[in-house]
Amino acid sequence: MTPYPDLHLYINGEFRKAASDLPVLNPATEEEIGRLPHAEKSDLDDALDAAEQGFKTWRKVAPIERANVLYRAAALMRERQEEIATAITAEHGKPLSQARLEVIRGCEFFEWDAGEATRTYGRIIPSAPGARYSVHHQPIGTVAAFSPWNFPMSQPCRKVAGAIASGCSIILKAAEETPAGALHIARALHDAGLPPGVLNLVFGTPAEISDHLIRQDSVRLVAFTGSTAVGKHLTTLAAQHMTPVLMELGGHAPVIVCEDTDVEAAAISGAERKMRNAGQVCTSPTRFFVHESIFDAYAETFVRRAGATIVGNGVDPDVEMGPLANDRRIGALTDLVDDAREKGAEIRTGGSRLGDTGYFFEPTVLANVPDNARVMQEEPFGPLAIINPVASLDEAIEKANSVPYGLAAYGFTNRADYVDRMVESIEAGNVSINTLEASLPETPFGGVKSSGYGREGGTEGLHNYMITKNIMHSLSIV
Ligand code: NAD
Fold it and tell me: Which of 116, 292, 296, 373 is buried most, with the most CB atoms less than 10 Å from its CB?
């Protein structure tokens, strides 16, 4: 097995250590696998200076050349897939097969945004004779980006690709629990010839770093993926400086299962998808609203498949679900299950920590959960599904919309009128029918309500990283 990488900050084109470091743990074994350098204020100031210079250089580079750097870096990451995936499994715990797919997804984000960089067209506005009006899209400047621990590679790839493709520079603070994915991104871009200062990578104390970076004039966009609470805090900080934000926050995805669907296939798909990444996905299907006529059959199949999930260390090729990424999630899930039980929910399978070494949690299915249980409103962010019966599509849509979140939502039906009602009425940035896939590099991803705003991916994605400039050019002085 490839060893876990030696961890560094990456500032102004150089990999460096810091004055202090902290352990990185393997969540399956709780063993230390690396030491993470913690950036101090002087490191952050170096990163800010580097990013300011990096932006001056990079904004003048032709879009096709920017794209070529991203394509080269993606090719390197594809070559290094096994090494990167092994590191991700060690620091995050997910099965190696899922880590491999994540590396490829990260590469696809690079490749999509590289292509889009060459198509950030402006437009010509019809004007009077002797005048030319046009609209240009230009890179916004230095981006301060914060990526979470649930997808150590693909999450930072999204933000880095968007910024670099658009001609911005970026200071990325990746998750302290899972630094290797971001380090590998920096290595690939470094080896692909990215000029110094365009990408800077730091780790440390999240609140100190965000507080220092966001107050700087040179930082022109704050891009964050993580919890709604932290997103609101960073948005408040950014508002003091009128700095725009791109916020990809929590979700509590509903799944509406209509009476006409293939019950067996829908239940198995739901159970398997729920347990992917141990449920630590902002689009994870969580609140299953199933028509009462098929509820028993659906719940029975779902519980059987969920309960059969093979849980263990992600390096074992048979394992389907690894541990939770950190010990905080064990306490959070246990509290939600206990509360639901007290309020009258049925625990159909799971509900507890597994073993006492490693942050393993049982695949958990709750049924007939009352509306006043906390888990009906709070995102569990773990391997926990709620299955409740509904009498009609109207009731399901009303329940789907009854949380503060609006990121992903899913429906299972073959009826065109049902699809139409769901698409029209569900409050979410992403609605998927007969699939639990919510986002691809070529589709715009983001939320409404407390799930945030702005979109990543698709043709819309790069607009966050650009300003729109209106040009009025009179051919003579008027
Ligand atoms: P948390 O709220 O403490 O942290 C969430 C993320 O924000 C982490 O990556 C953390 O490093 C970062 N963070 C925290 N405070 C910050 C600050 N002041 N400035 C900058 N970054 C900061 O929660 P947690 O225990 O790490 O994660 C659990 C919750 O986070 C989940 O309930 C889920 O809602 C959310 N989460 C969402 C996503 C997502 O993809 N949207 C990913 C990871 C976590």
Answer: 116
